[in-house]
């Protein structure tokens, strides 16, 4: 008899509206610890809004967001701040500080949130850059880097506080196919090596099928499918098949 693993993240009937437009309409989602969950959906469909709820950067109008057994609505700002340090976040465009060197960018979470001495910080920065294949670029500026290198620096920064959960918002946006594959492989290797939980927001099917342990599909504000990649491919749900085939859904067609 197998024992069910408690979800590390759980969304329970989460609703969120902006100016009367309901973006999340009763989202239910349980994230299994130690796995890579890819949340797929059409652009503008609420994926990034959902991700911000996981960090407590947005609060639901209704419903609950639970992380590591804690209801985020019951946490103080100080408790939320402490909880967020257990997350690593890779923003869609990297969000590096252009006025800081690579080393200073990666060190930023440590200088802001720890009392580590300089030598320890520098050692941690070098280790994380080595892990993402970027040794020897501590003193370079972000503007001197390629798009793929900027993504890897951002990943090193996301890892430097040794997080338990990694969140990725469209990690391969703007990259060519070769670099997309490289970044995907790096994310997979990092998650497996560190034994962390990863949630990836994407609309990239290739990335999802190459990385995911499970795929959740966000459609019209609800998770209508959450299953393994093979089952997702074989889904009989019309919105899933339209997405897989690159077709607009009927609602989009009606609005045109």
Please give a handful of descriptors for the protein shown:
256 residues; alpha/beta; 10 helices; 10 strands
Kindly summarize this structure in a few lines.
38% of the residues lie in helices and 24% in strands.
**Large-scale geometry:** globular
The CA-CA distance between the termini, in Å, is 52 Å
Mean pLDDT, as a whole number?
89
Number of separate strands: 10
Major sheet description: 6 strands, mixed
Please give the count of helices.
10
Rg, nearest Å: 19 Å
Low-confidence stretches: 252-256
Q: β content, as a range?
A: 15-25%
Q: Which secondary-structure class do the elements indicate?
A: alpha/beta
How are the strands ordered across the major sheet?
A: 6-7-8-3-9-10
Helix coverage percent of residues?
25-40%
**Order of helical and strand elements:** EEEHEEHEHHHEHEHEEHHH
Give your account of this protein's structure.
Its EC number is 3.6.3.30. It holds the Pfam family ABC_tran. It comes from Desulfobacca acetoxidans (strain ATCC 700848 / DSM 11109 / ASRB2). It is an enzyme of class 3 (hydrolase). With about 260 residues, the protein is α/β, with parallel strands linked by helices. It has a domain of about 60 residues. Helices cover about 40% and strands about 25% of the residues. It has ten helices and ten strands. The strands form two sheets. Strands 6-7-8-3-9-10 form a six-stranded mixed β-sheet, sandwiched between helices. The protein has a four-stranded antiparallel β-sheet with strand order 2-1-4-5, with helices on one face. Helix 3 runs parallel beside helix 5.
């Amino acid at each position: 008899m197998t024992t069910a693993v408690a979800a590390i993240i759980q969304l329970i009937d989460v609703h969120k509206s902006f100016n009367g437009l309901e973006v999340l309409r009763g989202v239910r989602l349980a994230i299994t610890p130690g796995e890579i969950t890819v949340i797929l959906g059409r652009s503008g469909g609420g994926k990034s809004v959902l991700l911000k709820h996981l960090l407590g950067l947005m609060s639901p109008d209704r419903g609950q967001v639970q992380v590591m057994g804690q209801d985020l609505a019951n946490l103080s700002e100080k408790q939320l701040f402490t909880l967020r340090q257990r997350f690593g976040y890779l923003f869609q465009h990297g969000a590096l500080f252009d006025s800081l060197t690579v080393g200073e960018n990666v060190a930023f979470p440590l200088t802001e949130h720890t009392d580590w001495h300089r030598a320890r910080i520098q050692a941690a920065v070098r280790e994380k850059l080595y892990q993402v294949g970027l040794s020897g670029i501590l003193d370079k500026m972000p503007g001197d880097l390629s798009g793929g290198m900027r993504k890897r620096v951002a990943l090193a920064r996301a890892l430097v506080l040794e997080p338990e959960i990694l969140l990725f918002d469209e990690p391969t946006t703007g990259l060519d196919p070769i670099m997309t594959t490289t970044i995907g492989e790096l994310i997979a290797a990092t998650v497996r090596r560190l034994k962390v939980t990863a949630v990836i927001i994407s609309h990239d099917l290739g990335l999802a099928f190459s990385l995911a342990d499970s795929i959740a599909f966000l459609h019209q504000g609800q998770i209508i499918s959450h299953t393994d990649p093979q089952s997702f491919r074989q889904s009989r749900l019309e919105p899933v098949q339209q997405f897989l085939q690159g077709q607009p859904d009927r609602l989009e067609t009606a609005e045109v």
